[in-house]
Write a structure and sequence with these properties.
The structure is a homodimer of 453-residue chains. Chain A is an alpha/beta fold. Chain A has a domain at 6-13 and 69-110 and 239-447: 3-Layer(aba) Sandwich (Rossmann fold). Chain A contains 18 helices and 15 strands. Chain A has helices spanning 43-46, 52-59, 69-75, 87-93, 114-126, 140-152, 162-167, 169-177, 191-199, 207-220, 233-253, 268-282, 300-303, 346-353, 364-378, 384-403, 421-428, 439-447; strands spanning 6-7, 17-19, 64-66, 83-85, 98-103, 131-136, 155-161, 181-185, 224-226, 259-263, 289-295, 305-310, 319-324, 358-362, 408-413. In chain A, strands 1-4-5-15-10-11-14 form a seven-stranded mixed beta sheet, with helices on both faces. In chain A, α2 (52-59) packs across α11 (233-253), α4 (87-93) crosses α15 and α5 (114-126) packs across α11. The longest helix of chain A is centred in the middle third of the chain and has 21 residues, at 233-253. The radius of gyration of chain A is 20 Å and the shape is globular. The interface between A and B is large, with 50 and 50 residues. Chains A, B: It catalyses: (1S,2R)-1-C-(indol-3-yl)glycerol 3-phosphate + L-serine = D-glyceraldehyde 3-phosphate + L-tryptophan + H2O. Chains A, B: The modification N6-(pyridoxal phosphate)lysine is found at residue 113. Chains A, B: This is Tryptophan synthase beta chain. Chains A, B: GO terms for molecular function: L-serine hydro-lyase (adding indole, L-tryptophan-forming) activity; pyridoxal phosphate binding; tryptophan synthase activity.
Chain lengths: 453, 453
Amino acid sequence: MTDSVKYFLPEERIPRTWYNIIADLPEPPAPVLNPGTKQPIGPEDLAAIFPMSLIAQEVSTEREIEIPDPVRDIYKLWRPSPLIRARRLEAALDTPAKIYFKYEGVSPAGSHKPNTAVAQAFYNKEAGITKLSTETGAGQWGSSLAFAGSLFGLEVKVYMVRVSFNQKPYRRALMETYGATCIPSPSEETECGRAILAEHPDSPGSLGIAISEAVEVAAQNADTNYSLGSVLNHVLLHQSVIGQEAMEQMEMAGDEPDVIIGCAGGGSNFAGLAFPYIGAKLRGGPAPKIVAVEPAACPTLSRGSYAYDFGDTAHLTPLMKMYTLGAGFIPPGFHAGGLRYHGMSPLVSQLMELGEIEARAVQQLGCFEAGIQFARSEGIVPAPESTHAVRVAIDEALAAKEAGEAKTILFNLSGHGHFDMQAYMDYFAGKLEDRDYDEAELKRSLAELPAAE
Amino acid sequence: MTDSVKYFLPEERIPRTWYNIIADLPEPPAPVLNPGTKQPIGPEDLAAIFPMSLIAQEVSTEREIEIPDPVRDIYKLWRPSPLIRARRLEAALDTPAKIYFKYEGVSPAGSHKPNTAVAQAFYNKEAGITKLSTETGAGQWGSSLAFAGSLFGLEVKVYMVRVSFNQKPYRRALMETYGATCIPSPSEETECGRAILAEHPDSPGSLGIAISEAVEVAAQNADTNYSLGSVLNHVLLHQSVIGQEAMEQMEMAGDEPDVIIGCAGGGSNFAGLAFPYIGAKLRGGPAPKIVAVEPAACPTLSRGSYAYDFGDTAHLTPLMKMYTLGAGFIPPGFHAGGLRYHGMSPLVSQLMELGEIEARAVQQLGCFEAGIQFARSEGIVPAPESTHAVRVAIDEALAAKEAGEAKTILFNLSGHGHFDMQAYMDYFAGKLEDRDYDEAELKRSLAELPAAE
């Protein structure tokens, strides 16, 4: 086992442009609609909460968008991230498959999220904004925006889903170390928070509610903008550095992936790795199988409708055409807060509809089992979200063994689990169980989808 | 700020040999003594708890000792570790000094400790051992040996200081994820644990007690050996990969350090960075200032005696000549469990006595302040132990600013603080205070040093 396991690129190979898959789509994305008029919204509708530069990126059809030098300089703190061949995992599985993973947990905040957090902070700072508001579930996104804010001197206010806020005090401590403020949501600070608390004083909160609070604060304060950690086109755009680097590193390794795997909550780490590959395919290149992995408890791509829906619970956002379980869908409890979102990025959804990707829903016990096997082979303890990708990578490697095929598997290890050890403790204590979504809840929630015009 | 910040070496530049400073010392280290006879011990005295290969390394006078391929292959999972120029911290301090740090937190367990854990697991496996016992304070070492054990299929049993065991459930979860067993110490499992509990049922434990328990288990079971995470010559030897890589990376950066800084508990991360530089100096090379940073609450080098002492509380270990506060010394509570040890590595102690290094004792509030400034500039949240090195690096940079000198500072960032966020929370909550050691306690403890023959 004396071969290379890590494929490092030098700093100067950090991509100079982000890759925009919209340029390669066979048809343009469905427009985002004003929920009142059901008409496409214009840039001015978003100007209250986003800087114009990000709004321009949201609708851009350019294939390559330049990464500003100050953003690229900050990327240097951890990028290019390593591509690693999981030789020890391969040996443990006794599989003929080669397993590679792109490791985004090397970022200061511990996940892929800073790739977009830094860009968003930069453009907001440039636009004269001094404060950013956002939501966070598991805490990966809140920590990342807090980190990015500290580098640009922006005040960051994070609305954290209350149940996570209580369960994960160290996530909050990390955000505070970066100088951000972290508030349990629903809070008394916003109208929508107060309205929810009036009706449900013990509300555990949800990502949808926290988004509503953060958007409200941004909409009502001229010095404050809103930042979102996934779903939107510009967020996925910024994550394209992952796949661009991976393509170059796979070339260094002399391999070409047959299967590409990412976990998908809002879709950003999945898209970050997969979109540059899908784009190459759409332009006539090789056609690997692309798998988005989601929790069986919140199976947006597998069981949702492809329809216009709100991004949040209080219906403050515009309508986006996407796979959705319904903005009011409440998944059962499970340990991957970053995968609890009711919707899916419109771009990922469109590619699903086009048949370019496939979805796989997996249960959490198998994910933790895979995560532990991975930790004991490769040393890295994956975030609960990332264990979903590990699970399917292992399943693919075992299928290759069964079939006697020498497949090449590439997955995105989106983050480490250092702030999620309670989930591992619960697993070891036998407190976790597999959870399916509730059929009746899904039916109820889908029935509330806004009517199409 | 478009220059490089990271200096990555390719995998093939992981050192092929460890550097043994004993070859360059002006006189041989003082012998280790049998506490009964006060005569130098022989290899056979250690054979009950260490494999012969490590005992041979402990007393070797060879300058270079080959790193076995299987160890080097595992090093590839995270080595070479990055050398990073802290340009953002420099800018925040507005200093003419250049600040570089070697970042050992990229290892799977999050610190420099796996550099020796992997080597120790390898040699024990090779010797037919199936179980390792060890102690851990803050948890960095226990996690690292658990990780190393998982790679070689060794059962690892970790005695964790009870107060840390209770304060840090996630450290324990990490060890269990790697497949190790973690037991609060003092425990009912050992004679010395039972003796202590009989007298002090509520004993919070100490590193010295935990060492006694782990050594007892290893001494009494033929299939079990003991592993130590610092202090001993072979441990410091394994850490020399840090400084060897750093020398090559500083050359890539075109710089030569004027000051080299590491925090020092048992001495291993400090020695890992500093010894290759000190060796070069002893062979006629440049002479940077070398600073070992220790907590004011446990100032072994600054206030201890250079004398023969036990390594543990129950006096199960041989006598080593070292700086010591006395094996019975109890420091006041402070948040850097890895720096609470009463002694100091005999090799570091000898170099202190020779005037090759200097010691600086610092208070914890200033350390957390430095750690937070570092996190907000460079993104990485340092372990409480590592903040001690950050504090002195910042102090040196500010002194350079005062003096108008363009100094080059290099420090070892031995680990991240992801499992130590309670310490940061306590700091933010104003619960921490500066703590000096107790003069009367030190006097009492030093009076109990074993008599020299």
